[in-house]
Amino acid sequence: MEASNDYAALMEGRLANFPSKEEIAGDLLTIQQLRGELDAAREAERQREVEIEELKKKLAAAEAEKIVVQSDLDSMKEKYRREFEGRNRKARKDLHLARVSLAKEYEGFWLWSRYSEGGFELEAELERLKDLEVSLDVDYGLALVSGPSLGRLDLPEISGDSVNQD
User: Fold this and answer.
1) 7-20: per-residue pLDDT in tens?
2) In terms of residue numbers, what domain contains 15?
């Protein structure tokens, strides 16, 4: 009987330590609340991941647009550099042509003023130009090589057999 009393005492002790229905209901409510908070946190995390993916896509699109804009900017810089160089080249050419034209006009004016002052003898200038022409003809004639002078050159002889007479 003593064993049965011990068993009964053990069971009473366990029943006394066993949580009540209210305590179990409170614990279940706490568990349900924590599960709800966990689900809400998981949903918030999923939303953040979706937002992060969208932001990554926007960043990639912005990077691609930046590359396109940079390329356009480089193209425009090159275009305007070429236009500037072209305008600069044309301006320098126009300046050179203007200087040449001015020099010709000045020379014509100088010759006209010299002629009108009487310091320019037309016949003397014509004679000087004819003398210059003759001296140039002589120089040109000296530059030509005559036939007999070629005979003094040491050139190899060519026989009739070695010449192709087709």
Assistant:
1) 888 877 777 777 77
2) 10-141
